[in-house]
Write the structure tokens for this entry.
Amino acid sequence: MTKVTTAMLLAAGLGTRMKPLTDTRPKPLIEVGGRTLVDRVLDKLVAQGVTRAIVNVHYLADMMEAHLAARKDIEIIISDERALVLETGGGVVKALPLLGDDPFFVVNTDVTWTTAGDQTFLDMAAAYDPSTMDALLLLAQMEATLGFRGPGDFDLAADGQLIRRGDRASAPYVFAGTHITRADLLRGYEAKPFSANTYWNAFAARGRLFGTVMSPFWMHVGDPSGRDEAEARLNLMGPGA
């Protein structure tokens, strides 16, 4: 079983779709279920053995840094993108010197699920096989999601390889905002703005892009209505959700 103890948290976005809530704070500091989105991610990671988190910052970066400095249960290292936001791919490439050589999680901060007793990251690490996989993406079943407005992203082959939706009207799984990969696979890319889809496509062309389906109900918190829906669901689930 692969042990993954480092995570990259993507927290540098402008939060445009979350306006007006992001007029005065970055999206990762929006609260859902009594915790900020970034703390909900960090809580889960800490509980599942992650000891280092690299967090990229751009919009209202000083506020993000001040908030993260209060956490003492995990080592947090800032990847500064104040000069230019680098998107999901470029942000990871810029942070490679901080991430080390072992496999690491890359986690969006605008998603959440139940926290109490969660083992999603542990299960994902157990499913990751570096001998056959360049990246392992976390998926959610479309019928077990909230706040996601699209038609789905992927299907799964029998061996777990990912199949993109392409021209089909729908697909049964949505990317749930986390993947595992390694620095040695990304050092050929430049730290400029680009999507992680760029390197996922390269991995897929080699037959080395895989997916694993999470058990918890998944919530995308991408806009104010998504935040309200997630808040309502977590309130129904009670304390500790």
